[in-house]
Amino acid sequence: MLAALFAMGGIAQAAEGPIIIAHRGASAERPEHTLAAYERAIDQGADYIEPDLVVTKDLVLVVRHENNLADTTDVSSREEFEDRRRDKTIDGQKIAGWFAEDFTLEELRILRAKERIPAIRPANARFNGLYQVPTLEEVVKLVRAKEAETGRRIGIYPELKHPSFLLQEAGIDMVDLLLKEFRTLGVTEADPVFVQSFEVGTLQRLNQRSDFKLVQLVKPEDGPADEPDMRYAEMVTPSGLAEIAEYADAIGAHIGLILGPDGSPTTLIADAGAAGLEVHAWTLRPENAFLPPSLQGEGGDQGRGKIDLLKRMLVSAGVTGIFTDAPNLAVQVNSQAR
Question: For the GP-PDE domain, which residue ranges apply (predicted)?
């Protein structure tokens, strides 16, 4: 059936295509969650950039994939911070490392970003040591500067990372911090903003306190960390989607929930639409390591595959947004459809 889906002439595509969300920036070309990755994504035409938010000891929202800094910074090589190494249980998993909430912003400024998956993205490792950990404020200021330069609106799509853990572990309320920071920066509900989380209660509180567009993240396995009796598999049933629609505007769904093993659409998008929810798919990545065998190219895990075909399959299924590590390639597919 995949062969039939690859006959692209038969796939209906929206005139403008889905919104392109730069997943951690142009992270296939620069170390993720750096200002360089975000700027490159904007220059490539991304509609939104996606910063994952964690918090410092002095309550500054900063951007990292996880609150554990071990894989995305050079903290392990900094002798002055060796005593900050901790073991923590986060969302049910014991993790060893150095955690953002144990550092002040001034201390974080000493660290430098590095490529998280150098075996797959060795070219990105050339930029190791060049970039600091950015703050949410710096991301917003970059977006505004690029809007002034390009004359187009650029959205932000932040994800709150482990908010329940931080509330219980350190008494840090990410909902309060985010809304306060938005007010300080003049970010309003009229701006192109989505706020996302894998947790339910966090989004429900945001819904009660603001009118920002909210996105419930879902995946094939597990369930929300703040709702141990819930499973994502149940949340994506028609009744579960109806409950999500009471507090969120969209779901951010793993591609495996949208397309079956043969590439044909599941019922998720139709079910979500019936509940009044949009569907944004995650994550479109260009390397073979992240693609099914039928879409892989030459060159092993780090070689590039046929993400244009996968993107067209997602568009055909009816997604209205796509997270991607390679916004230039996703934008090209949108352009070719016009």
Answer: 18-334
